[in-house]
Design a protein that fits this description.
- The complex is a heterodimer of chains A (171) and B (125).
- Helix content of chain A is 73%, strand content 0%.
- Chain A is mainly α and 171 residues long.
- Chain A has a single domain, classed as Arp2/3 complex 21 kDa subunit ARPC3.
- Chain B is α+β, with helices and mostly antiparallel strands.
- Chain B has a domain of 79 residues: N-utilization substance G protein NusG, insert domain (mini-chromosome maintenance (MCM) complex, domain 2), CATH 2.60.320.
- The radius of gyration of chain B is 20 Å and the shape is elongated.
- Classes of the chains: A mainly alpha (171), B alpha+beta (125).
Chain lengths: 171, 125
């Protein structure tokens, strides 16, 4: 792909991710888990991963999303901001790597594994900030469960995008 | 058309779901004991230990942070001066496998386990 086209695509995806980051807090969860969000804003990161934009591009979108989204929502530099930032960057790097080096895993697999890593890293960071990992571990199974649902939905949407973009013609 | 959903995807989803469900069951299997008190830690350091009903303000360096309420074997954060209010929204806790966490202040409200307060071993429905 032409370099400038890739650059503009990454910028568009980052913009969409920021908007979704702010809007997704209005969507209620099926169970009362304070402080937990769906994570729909990971869609552009997943798209960049399955379009094979590379590990660095995915991480850049994840960083842009957390940073600009944090500025817009007023969550910047708080504990939850650092949890989200580290979680999404870790999962972005992992998803980009999976697409490049593990061809046996499809869109759903990439999305699910990315979500799992995202949740694991967030819980670990929360435990680190608190200095007490036992306290936050109570949340972990529910996070994983919600992450699985979100990841599946995002993978389905990504596949629809891929079809519309006729991505197969280029592969 | 290239296949976008591959064989391994189903295994991955199944494995992750199984993982989550097993963890939730393990959490439920831990004996549900009534709590006889809670201890409040700030940044891992014990701030106050509660075993009597009442309201307990938690302070650090003279600044009021939050108020913990303990009432008839249940505990909650009644109000907090933190910015996201997650600890307040957590509500009442009454089991030893639950905790209330306030990330901005690094405060953890942990139950202290005790005997079964109501004499019921297992509740099924």
């Amino acid at each position: 792909m032409v370099k400038s086209k890739k650059l503009s695509n990454i910028s568009i995806l980052t913009g969409i991710a920021c908007a979704m980051y702010v809007v997704e807090s209005f969507i209620p969860l099926p169970m009362p888990l304070p402080g937990v969000r769906w994570g729909f804003s990971n869609l552009p990161v997943l798209l960049a991963a399955v379009l094979d934009y590379g590990v660095l591009s995915c991480a850049m979108i994840a960083f842009g999303k957390s940073f600009i989204g944090g500025l817009l929502s007023g969550r910047i530099a708080s504990a939850t901001f650092f949890m989200g930032l580290s979680g999404s960057i870790a999962s972005a790097l992992f998803m980009g790597w999976l697409k490049k080096h593990v061809p046996k895993v499809g869109t759903i697999g990439i999305s699910e594994l990315g979500a799992l890593l995202n949740n694991t890293v967030q819980i670990l960071i929360a435990g680190l900030i608190l200095g007490n990992s036992k306290a936050v571990f109570y949340y972990y199974p529910y996070l994983v469960l919600i992450g699985t649902v979100t990841a599946y939905l995002l993978a389905v949407v990504s596949n629809i995008f891929l079809r519309s973009m006729n991505h197969d013609a280029k592969v | 058309m290239a296949k976008r959903t591959k064989k391994y995807d189903i295994f991955i989803v199944a494995a992750i779901l199984l993982f989550a469900v097993i963890m939730i069951f393990l959490n439920l299997l831990i004996p549900q004991k009534g709590i006889i008190g809670v201890k409040v830690t700030i940044d891992g350091v014990l701030a106050v230990s509660i075993s009597q009903d009442g309201l307990y303000p938690v302070e650090k360096d003279g600044k009021h942070l939050l108020t913990v309420e303990f009432y008839q074997g249940k505990a909650r954060v009644k109000e907090s001066t933190c910015d996201n209010q997650i600890c307040v929204k957590t509500g009442w806790i009454s089991n030893t496998n639950q905790t209330i966490v306030c990330l901005p202040y690094k405060i953890v409200v942990e139950p202290i386990g005790g005997k079964n307060t109501d004499g019921v071993d297992i509740i099924t429905w």
